[in-house]
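Hi support team,

I've been running sequence recovery on a batch of backbones for a student project. Most finish fine, but this one hangs at about 90% for roughly twenty minutes before it completes. I'm not sure whether the input is malformed or the queue is just slow. I've pasted the structure tokens below so you can try to reproduce it. Let me know if you need the job ID as well.

Thanks,
M.K.
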């Protein structure tokens, strides 16, 4: 079974090797960012983050959303290198009562506040290596045109009417709440007040004549959409939660506010007394960035994958699909939902003073280090906890010691004095497990390693398609540990290049380890782009050899030529990832000697 599973991926001796891209492309996927049963070589893909509210500076939750989308997008580009095949948008949400109030409290005009905070998001994403193709601001002219066109379409279809709308309004969440979602509690002065049951934010009873969207007409179409596509919302618990919401009554939705109350927004076309509801305004950004209302958007919209936090699930999984259906469009292809980050077990809050500044973390742990931590530890299904010691322990263990130590061992001058990719000896490591002979040195555990690394790219691709990036990194980390065990087991530092008995096996051990490192570096590019570049450059892997289409692992094992065999390694680049806890830094130094 071991040999069969390896050969299925890489090809039998005497046949052409099968590249990972060819293998993945031949499979049919039932879910994932490329679409159901799409051939990845021909399909487009469009990834989006939420657009982030500019009432406060960015925190690690914002960065986490952007990193999830960035990793999905980068992995997609490894599969389909054409830059024109993938789009990725992010940006800032700059209208609404909350912005209006925050600007007034700061003594600023709304435009000044928006410019200041939007620049902070843009700078953070630039520093964190977010590879978006568009950064949209809802105050842009192109967006106003798109929103007003979308509004006009809903009105022309008879889905908007003017009526008296009343209920509990939460300015912090920019939405009306049903009676069941409101409770009373004492404020800091001891006075009783009404607040949102879920968030604790204050609410006020509001009664206005507004434009109202006939949301109630879309309950059954939304149910049919979700029941007909179990992968529409992932992870599955969130898909199930939306269907449960749709079991309840779906009342019509207020989609405007009086301009006298909310002036900071986009006016309703033909009625300056009303301002378009901030959530309708914000959601249309996903159309704006692909050219709406021009015809070009139609070729991108069916490939859309939204990456959102669980707190805005209802807006994206009920209101937005209903609005799209009302405008004659399809719902988003995929909605990927993630949970939140807590700090030392507590919810991040300005009042608690525990909001984590992501730029400080990027400086403290390095850009690649903090990217790796958030994506390795973040599990979309449930909230994840941040504290400094946890970051240091993970990065030192997996990046500095395990991965960095492995690279240092295999490239150290004492073990690899020629500074090359050594020759693989098929006599020492035959492709037939169980063969015996005076030159055979490979053990059963070594064949298990080959199998694990050979199937790793497929595993990683499946995890990305299932929005489980943390599992992809877990799988890579497991193989790194296995490779370290392989090197430790055969102890190349005890072998002698001058010995005709030792030399072929010494070269083979290093060749296998370097091939494993090449796979790890290739697969880590979406998460730690700079670190992966450093690793691959040290191995002498050129920029054109880093895609999944070029990732044929250990071809010499199957009797095929290896383009890296005998090639000089790249220049020395120092430690791959310096330890953060210097009290154990001697371990890394020991690996280098």
């Amino acid at each position: 079974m071991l040999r069969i599973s390896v050969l299925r991926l890489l090809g039998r001796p005497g046949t052409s090797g099968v590249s990972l891209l060819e293998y993945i492309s031949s499979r049919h996927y039932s879910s994932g960012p490329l679409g159901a049963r799409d051939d990845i070589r021909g399909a487009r893909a469009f990834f989006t983050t939420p657009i982030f509210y500019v009432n406060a500076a960015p925190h690690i939750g914002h960065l986490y959303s952007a990193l999830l989308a960035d990793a999905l997008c980068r992995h997609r580009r490894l599969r389909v290198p054409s830059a024109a095949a993938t789009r990725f948008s992010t940006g800032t949400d700059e209208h609404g009562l909350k912005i209006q109030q925050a600007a007034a409290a700061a003594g600023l005009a709304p435009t000044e506040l928006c410019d200041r905070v939007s620049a902070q998001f843009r700078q953070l994403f630039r520093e964190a290596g977010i590879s978006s193709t568009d950064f949209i601001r809802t105050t842009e002219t192109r967006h106003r045109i798109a929103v007003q066109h979308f509004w006009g379409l809903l009105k022309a279809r008879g889905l908007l009417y003017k009526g008296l709308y009343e209920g509990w309004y939460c300015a912090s969440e920019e939405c009306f709440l049903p009676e069941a979602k409101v409770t009373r509690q004492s404020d800091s002065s001891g006075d009783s007040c009404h607040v949102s049951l879920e968030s604790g934010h204050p609410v006020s009873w509001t009664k206005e004549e507004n434009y109202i969207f006939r949301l109630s007409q879309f309950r059954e179409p939304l149910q049919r959409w979700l029941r007909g596509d179990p992968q529409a919302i992932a992870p599955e618990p969130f898909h199930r939660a939306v269907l449960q919401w749709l079991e309840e009554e779906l009342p019509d939705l207020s989609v405007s506010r009086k301009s006298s109350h909310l002036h900071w927004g986009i006016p309703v076309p033909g009625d300056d007394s009303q301002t378009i509801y901030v959530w309708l305004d914000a959601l249309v950004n996903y159309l704006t960035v692909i050219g709406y209302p021009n015809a070009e958007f139609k070729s991108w919209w069916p490939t859309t994958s939204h990456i959102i936090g669980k707190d805005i699930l209802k807006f994206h999984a009920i209101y937005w699909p209903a609005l799209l259906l009302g405008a004659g469009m399809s719902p988003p292809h995929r909605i990927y939902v993630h949970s939140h980050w807590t700090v030392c077990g507590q919810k991040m809050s300005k009042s608690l003073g525990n909001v984590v500044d992501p730029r400080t973390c990027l400086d403290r742990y390095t850009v690649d280090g903090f990217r790796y931590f958030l994506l390795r530890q973040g599990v979309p299904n449930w909230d994840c906890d941040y504290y400094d010691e946890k970051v240091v322990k993970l990065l030192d263990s997996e990046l500095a010691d395990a991965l960095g130590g492995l690279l240092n061992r295999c490239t150290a001058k004492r073990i690899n004095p020629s500074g090359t990719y050594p020759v693989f000896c098929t006599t020492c490591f035959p492709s037939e497990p169980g063969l015996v002979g005076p030159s055979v040195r490979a053990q059963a555990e070594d064949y298990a390693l080959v199998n694990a690394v050979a199937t790793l790219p497929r595993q990683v691709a499946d995890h990305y398609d299932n929005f489980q990036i943390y599992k992809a990194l877990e799988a890579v980390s497991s193989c790194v540990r296995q490779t370290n065990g392989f090197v430790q087991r055969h102890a190349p530092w005890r072998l002698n290049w001058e010995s005709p008995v030792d030399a072929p096996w010494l070269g083979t051990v290093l060749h296998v380890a370097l091939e494993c490192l090449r796979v790890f570096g290739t697969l880590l590019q979406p998460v730690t782009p700079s670190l992966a570049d450093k690793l691959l450059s040290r191995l002498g892997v050129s920029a054109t050899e880093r895609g999944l289409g070029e990732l044929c692992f250990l071809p010499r094992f199957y009797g095929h030529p290896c383009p890296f065999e005998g090639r000089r390694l790249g220049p020395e680049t120092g430690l791959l990832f310096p330890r953060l806890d210097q009290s154990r830094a001697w371990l890394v130094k020991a690996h280098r000697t």
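--
Follow-up from support: It reproduced on our side and the slowdown came from queue contention, not your input. The first strand starts at residue 45 and ends at 48. No action needed from you.
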